[in-house]
Amino acid sequence: MIALGTHPVAVRNVRIAGPTRQYVPFDDVCDVVINGGKIVDFAPVGALKHHGPVWDAEGSWVMPGLWDHHIHSTPTALAAMRTDVMSAMTAGEAAAIMSKVVPAADGRRIGVRMRDGLWHDRPTLAVLDEASGHVPTYIVNMDLHSVWMNSAAFLREGMIATESGLVREDVAFDVSRRLGELDADVLDAAVSEVADRAASRGVVGMIDYDFGWNLAPWVRRAADGFDAVRVQFGVYPQDLARAIAHGIATGDAIDELGLITVGSLKAISDGSLGTRTAACSHPYPDETSGHMAITPADLVELMMIATGSGFACAIHAIGDVANSHALDAFMTTGAWGSIEHAQLVSRVDLPRFARAGVSASVQPTHAVDDRDLADREWAGQPSAAYPLRSLHDAGANLLFGSDSPVAPLDPWLAMANAVDRTADEREPWLEYERLDVATAVAASVGGSQHEPLMEIGADADLVFCAQDPYAASGKELRSMVVNATLLGGRFTHLG
Prior knowledge:
Radius of gyration: 23 Å
Strand content: 15-25%
Number of helices: 17
């Protein structure tokens, strides 16, 4: 009987999806042979005698397992415990939703997925105070870059209230981090549930950019047996010296299985579109231009230190000004890594990603979620908005992620939105930025979009699908049935 956790020695009756097919001399189904967690052979069905568990895939299509290259594990894990206000179209509606929430055991109300950029009015402290009274109430923006708080929440945080009730950027990140400081057992169980759900969608790895010192929780989770997916966790600038003192660097494993490794230095260089703080070359309708959270000179110095200490760099850059500065810093320092988001890129900067060897870590679902806001707030911007096809055509290495909980942790959804550029009945948004299916699929596996092969000797990190992903439409990608997921030759999901 095959069960979760089983290490099969072979998977029988498999169809090969994608570029690996051209190297396998079988027209239809075959067996994938596994030993020591590695792919060791592709063989005709039944040609080899196996001594151990064999799973019959019944014609499932197999391809390399999927990665989400950008998540925030704690906000993702806690989202289900908080109140969703996305349906609100005004500040008053959002405040009214929160007023009906029974406070948690700690006395707070916490809402998520606020999209005040699309509201018909602006949030104010007075509006939230009137609805929420003396119960500390927080509403976290969908982009995580701002938090709307009432007076009781400001008092609880020891902060002076603002007229709008909003705190933004670093202050918002600090508030969100404190909101996530729950009992370790509760939080770790919730993170494990996130990983299990991800595995059920074919995910074998995720890159965690949780706010805070991430070594400690991931060491704890590894000791408790976390093994659903591979994890690379980021280190933020305030913790870089601490990480160097610990003697860790990018790629170092912190667990015996080698599933959890140190990732990149994560630096946030500008804001976001939703909070209207992304650093842009042309002003927003309100005449602001966003802001740089770190000066270009400081970014270069930071990346020099990180690179010299063995850290890759993952630089958050959304506006075109921020992307230009980030690319400058990569080219000046010789750092390697990625630019995270790259949502507005000067057209002269598009080819610089490839020249600098910098991956574009992008979130296709943001393009369809943000289209209305981008059409309004970035209407005067001459740079390329959410430029997936443009980056690909310029030779950039695309890596797909969700930015969960900003978008669902589901690579199939990201692929579908990259292919369709619409999530409703409207025409594709900026249709010329659509990607073909093969490129979208390839950007959803680990490391590189180029030739995602299942090679002999590689880790048996595999996803088994009910249909050929490379022949699927955007709609079919969105609803892809995952029959099984293997991580290092071990079942983490069985449909």
